[in-house]
Design brief:
Shape: globular
Number of domains: 3
Cofactor: FAD
Number of helices: 10
Largest sheet: 5 strands, parallel
Protein name: Pyridine nucleotide-disulfide oxidoreductase family protein
Pfam families: Pyr_redox_2
GO molecular function, one term: NAD(P)H dehydrogenase (quinone) activity
Strand order of the largest sheet: 5-2-1-9-22
Number of strands: 26
CATH architecture of the largest domain: 3-Layer(bba) Sandwich
Radius of gyration: 21 Å
Structural class: alpha/beta
InterPro entries: FAD/NAD-bd_sf, FAD/NAD-binding_dom, NADH-Q_oxidoreductase
CATH superfamily of the largest domain: FAD/NAD(P)-binding domain
CATH class of the largest domain: Alpha Beta
């Protein structure tokens, strides 16, 4: 009998969790570790912020999913992996042994700026600064904006110039107008420029959508610090805010580098074509927490979804001594941004369009994915 340990209960582990009955039927023991009894789907997080979705609509009841299928769920955080001893160390001090370990520990928003933002790490409570991960912080931000909008126009600053910043800004703007609220004044502090890695057509569509809402894009200087709700730019400008979102990109979990495992340039678990650690063959990984040795992968959920069947096959094969299957990342992927108010921007293979049809496509795809694993 093999001991399979799932470190993290995120997108890349959905197929593994669904296959627990098959794994246990073959005599394997399956244990999963996660920080909470539900896992939130990041692709629908901005929609939850904007009120399009309720929290239960964008999350998986992972504890129930695992335990009802015959697995064991441990609510805790992974702090270290002792690969030599084949154990995972938890924040509580508990050590969990494994024969095969699969990691889906996700990513975090870096705090490369000083002040209040530096203390808002890992979801620590803060009534002003809200990182976009973990996704639960977006729900806390929504409630904060709703409460403040009862009595005044809420000043919101979004630090970052990528897709997450765009989606958060558009949806945060909507929150202040709910239930007779006094609205929001939203600014995006985009660094050099908004959506700098996107085609010009997509950037123009985003800028036009933001302009219609009166959302200001502040470009040409990077955020240096957030102090007492005030955003300090490197050029000396200061902007007072009631709520600050951090959407500064994401980096892999620090667990791997802290544990002495071989990692990629950003600290993600370095894996080969089989999603297998290049230094420890009993360790696998998927999603944002890995560095794929054959070629760099963008930090987008589509890869975690595509990795599901390969992780399932290879973890099971490692337990049973069978041949591994290579992961093919595939070609171009579809990008759809939810910019609030039932509007979206879609881009793939030089095709780009916006409006309600773009949002409807995203909503259909997201709900279909959620339903597949919620049942």
């Amino acid at each position: 009998m093999g001991r399979l340990l799932l470190a993290g209960a995120g997108h890349a582990h959905m197929a593994l969790m669904a296959a627990i009955p098959e794994l246990t039927a073959k005599g394997h023991a399956v244990t999963a570790i996660g920080p909470g009894d539900r896992h939130y789907y990041s692709g629908m997080g901005p929609g939850m912020l904007g009120g399009t979705y309720r929290p239960e609509e964008i999350s998986f009841p992972v504890q129930t999913m695992i335990e009802s299928r015959g697995g064991t769920f441990i609510q805790d955080l992974v702090t270290a992996i002792d690969a030599a001893r084949h154990v995972v160390v938890l924040r509580s001090g508990r050590e969990v042994p494994y024969d095969v370990l699969s990691c889906n520990l996700g990513s975090y928003v870096p705090r490369d700026i000083s002040g209040d933002a530096a203390g808002a790490d890992n979801g620590v409570a803060n009534d002003v600064v809200f990182p976009v991960k973990p996704i639960e912080r977006l729900l806390a931000a929504r409630r904060r904006i709703q409460e403040m909008a009862k009595t005044k126009t809420v000043r919101i600053g979004v630090c970052g110039g990528g897709p997450a910043a765009l989606e958060v800004a558009g949806n945060a703007w909507d929150v202040g107008r709910e239930q007779g609220g006094k609205g929001c004044k939203v600014q995006i502090f985009a660094g050099s420029r908004l959506l700098k890695n996107m085609p010009d057509k997509v950037r123009r569509m985003a800028e036009e959508a933001l302009k219609k809402k009166g959302i200001e894009v502040v470009a040409g200087s990077y955020v240096h610090a957030v102090e007492s709700g005030e955003i300090h730019l490197q050029n000396g400008q200061r902007h007072v805010q009631d709520v600050v979102f951090l959407a500064l990109g994401v980096r892999p979990s620090k667990v791997f580098s802290n544990s002495g495992l071989e990692t990629g340039p950003e600290g993600g678990l370095l894996v080969n074509q089989f999603l297998q650690s290049v230094s420890h063959p009993d360790i696998f990984g998927g999603g944002d927490c890995i560095s794929f040795q054959p070629r760099p992968l963008d930090k987008v959920g589509v890869y975690a979804v595509r990795q599901n069947p390969v992780l399932l096959h290879n973890v099971r094969s490692r337990l049973e001594g069978r041949e591994l299957q290579p992961f093919d990342p595939g070609g171009d992927y579809l990008l759809i941004f939810n910019i609030g108010g039932g509007q979206g921007i879609l881009y793939k293979n030089r095709i780009a369009f916006g409006g309600r049809p773009a949002f409807w496509i995203k909503d259909y795809i997201d709900r279909k994915f959620i339903r597949k694993f919620q049942t």
